[in-house]
Amino acid sequence: MFLYVSLGTVVGLKINPKVGGFEPKWVTELKIATLVIPSFEIVPNKFADLNAVPRPSKKEQRVIKFIKDFGASLGLQTIEDEVGNVIIKKPATSGMENRKAIVMQSHLDMVHQKNSDTVFDFDTQGIQMYVDGDWVRANGTTLGADNGLGVATIMAVLDSDTIAHPAIEALFTIDEETGMTGAIGLKGGLLWGPRKDTEVWIPAKP
């Protein structure tokens, strides 16, 4: 399984029925790269749920509550740290208890930009997505797939009862787009598994 890795600004998501998910198309300077995410049918729905919640950088209160409520709805241990990061812990499935725990990480905030002629309030409105042929687009604004697809994929894993896995620690950081304050403010001792943020290394507790 591939987890979402931030490569650039998402301009659209192509629906790829062969893998049951999205094929994001990225623009990074002058080079276009694609990354196919083999996912579950639930991922697009989780992404839509997430995108209904306003989540501009430094104003993540609503999406923090959204992801905390999601963890609580699954009956999983859910923690908000002192800076606003959210950690959801899922026990290992039967037979996987002795495997090393893993950490899955994505950030909750998104780049909030709109076209000059678009009337839109990122503080109060969710992203208005629509299907354009094989593509999912946003109406006059950024789509929020960075890092919304990562969040949605992790949500799908947490929600699944068919995937065998070791203990999972899902880390949802804040304010990646404008300062990395969530990752920087994460205190040692909250996580036990080996992990890597898409931008910085976070040392594992020995």
Give an account of the 3D structure.
There is one protein chain. With 206 residues, the protein is of the alpha+beta class. Helix content is 21%, strand content 24%. It has four helices and nine strands, in the order E-E-E-H-H-E-E-E-E-E-H-E-H. The strands form two sheets. It has a five-stranded antiparallel beta sheet with strand order 3-2-1-8-7, covered by helices on one side. Strands 4-5-9-6 form a four-stranded mixed beta sheet, covered by helices on one side. Strand 1 and strand 2 (21-28) form a beta hairpin. Helix 1 (42-51) packs across helix 3. Residues 1-12, 15-39 and 196-206 have low confidence and may be disordered.
From the N-terminal CA to the C-terminal CA, the straight-line distance is: 27 Å
Total beta strands: 9
Cross-sheet strand order for the largest sheet = 3-2-1-8-7
Annotation field: number of helices:
4
**Biggest β-sheet: count, sense, barrel?**
5 strands, antiparallel
* DSSP strand content: 15-25%
Oligomer: single chain
Determine Rg (CA atoms, Å). Answer: 17 Å
Order of helices and strands: EEEHHEEEEEHEH
Topology:
Elements: E1 9-16, E2 21-28, E3 31-34, H1 42-51, H2 61-73, E4 77-80, E5 86-90, E6 102-107, E7 129-132, E8 135-138, H3 145-159, E9 168-173, H4 181-185
Feature tags:
alpha+beta, about 20% helix, single chain, about 210 residues, disordered N terminus, disordered C terminus, 4-stranded mixed beta sheet, 5-stranded antiparallel beta sheet, 4 helices
